[in-house]
Design goal:
heterodimer; A: alpha+beta; 7-stranded mixed β-sheet; B: mainly alpha; globular
């Protein structure tokens, strides 16, 4: 039997308790600080989860046209297209828009078309889906310097405009996005005046490439991409392609547009994709295609020069940027 | 040993938590989970982390004076080095992806874009601070001169917040948050130095 008389147990136990408590405290601090740091990182790191749950839209084929629009370019994944959105009414964080727009109500919906037209009319969602739909795969170039290739579904805006019969005095078309602060509470932080407004010259609006899109990847639009109906003008920077349209007004003058109201020196009315005219804070000569690591040169009119150059004959595009 | 005397533990804790965001970014990058535009995310994350660590270094003195947490002082240079580390990573993303390694174009870009100039200048000011972060350099410069040099941190952080503020398109919520925190930390120093001039504690550094 060991003689332990020189180590009174009353001294050993407290030290063990002390060490145990220290070990416990240290472990707690390790775990707590690690969770806090990792949690903070996770809060700000992008994790959009999106699924293409829209209803299928039947389309008619346009084989001759399609081959010229984004020939042999890789189409972006649905996850990229629906998980990375500029929709400031919901969030200025492109990766957060999908989650925040999840419960946005897009049905019932109506688009008021009026102004300088012969037959003003309100289109509801069913009316819009009655237009013969086509699938158009376009390059999409954001003014921020990134781009995608997107398979839109929709119909040329000209078809809708010709139904309301613009008057001969009409020269421009104004568009307005739905706005409701109750459904879009984070719009307080957008830093831009809302509702969002955009505009085109009438000949731009009537151009066959200008679409009213009701879907992508064969199905109705996800909320974050501008459901239920949005404009797509492929040769202009993305912000011209206004989302969730509720109003289309024919006018006899240039309508105000949200970004040029917010910062006239940086965003013009035309905002055609142009590698030779830089944004004051960044170059527009190159772009990063989402899904690629390197950069690629930006094409004049986003690669649609052949189709649209004639619209701007005689204009100085560095003045009318 | 009490918590405040356990310098080795503090060092391990700070080294680990400072490195953790970088490790998480690398893991997410490896798994392809950095979102649709990984370059944009990494650029923004490293920029914000630079500001976070700059702010943390500026937090040390007020916490010491107000709560007597003097043990923090021994970790301050580490926090500063992390600011430099993330600032350097931020600069690399710019050189690699914004400039495509065309280093000759950097000078023109600095001249053309004010926010690049401010960011670059702030980073360059961090270089001498990182270089003089060793014990030997403190000894060589002498305490007061070293402390004076390292007050450049104020200007570096102001430059960093300004750089962030100018680049956002319209939503200035985050830059505003950093600006408010920075204003409080610098304001505290102004008040402390006025009190000191009147012969009262606490002392600012």
């Amino acid at each position: 039997m060991k003689d332990r008389s020189h180590i009174p147990s009353s001294e050993v136990t407290p030290e063990e308790t002390f060490l145990n408590r220290r070990f416990f405290m240290k472990s707690a601090i390790w775990a707590g600080s690690t969770l806090a740091t990792a949690g903070l990182y996770r809060t700000f790191s992008p994790r959009p989860e999106v699924a293409n749950t829209g209803a299928a839209i039947a389309t008619v084929a346009e084989p001759a046209l399609q081959t010229t629009l984004a020939a042999d370019e890789k189409v972006n994944s649905f996850t990229d297209i629906a998980g990375y959105n500029n929709y400031y009414e919901f969030s200025t964080d492109k990766s957060a828009v999908a989650a925040k727009a999840k419960n946005f109500v897009t049905d019932p919906w109506s688009v008021q078309v009026g102004g300088l037209v012969q037959k003003p009319r309100t289109f509801d969602l069913a009316d819009l889906l009655k237009f013969e739909s086509v699938e158009r795969t376009y390059r999409f170039r954001c003014v921020e310097g990134w781009s995608m290739v997107i398979p839109w579904v929709g119909f040329p805006l000209s078809k809708l405009l010709s139904q309301v019969e613009p008057l001969s005095s009409a020269t421009h078309v104004a568009f307005e996005t739905y706005y409701d602060i109750k459904q879009m509470p984070d719009s307080r932080y957008a830093g831009i005046d809302l509702p969002y407004v955009e505009g085109l010259r009438l000949d731009e609006a009537m151009h066959p490439l200008t679409l009213l899109a009701t879907g992508l990847y064969g199905k109705t639009l996800p909320n974050q991409n501008g459901a239920p109906v949005r404009l797509v003008v492929p040769w202009k920077y993305g912000f011209k392609s206004i989302k969730s349209v509720v109003k289309i007004t024919l006018m006899d003058r240039e309508p105000p547009t949200t970004w040029s109201l917010a910062n006239p020196g940086e965003y013009g009315f035309y905002s055609n994709v142009n590698p030779k005219v830089d944004h004051p804070r960044w170059s527009q000569a190159h772009e990063r295609r989402i899904g690629e690591m390197g950069s690629r040169p930006t094409l004049m009119f986003n690669g649609y020069a052949e189709q649209v150059t004639h619209l701007y004959k005689g204009m100085d595009l560095s003045v009318d940027f | 040993m009490t918590f405040s005397a356990d310098t080795r533990f503090h060092r391990q804790l700070f080294v680990f938590n400072g490195l953790l965001p970088a490790v998480l970014i690398l893991i997410d990058g490896w798994r392809g989970k950095l979102g649709a535009n990984p370059v944009e995310f990494v650029t923004r994350a490293t920029g914000v982390l630079t500001l976070v660590f700059l702010i943390l270094t500026l937090l040390v003195t007020p916490l010491r004076k107000m709560y007597g947490w003097n043990w923090l002082l021994k970790q301050r240079r580490l926090l500063g080095l992390y600011a430099f580390f993330y600032g350097f990573a931020h600069l690399l993303t710019y050189l690699a992806y914004d400039r495509d390694w065309q280093l000759g174009t950097v000078i023109g870009d600095v001249y053309k874009r004010p926010f690049i100039a401010i960011g670059m200048f702030s980073f360059l000011l961090m270089v001498p601070l990182a270089v003089t972060s060793t014990n030997a350099m403190i000894k060589k410069l002498g305490g007061p001169r070293w402390a004076q040099l390292h007050r450049l941190t104020y200007y570096i952080t102001i430059g960093g917040v300004l750089h962030y503020w100018i680049i956002v398109k319209s939503d200035v919520t985050y830059p505003f948050f950093f600006a408010v925190v920075l204003a409080v930390l610098l304001g505290w120093r102004v008040v402390a130095s006025i009190k000191k001039a009147r012969g009262a504690a606490p002392r600012a550094s």
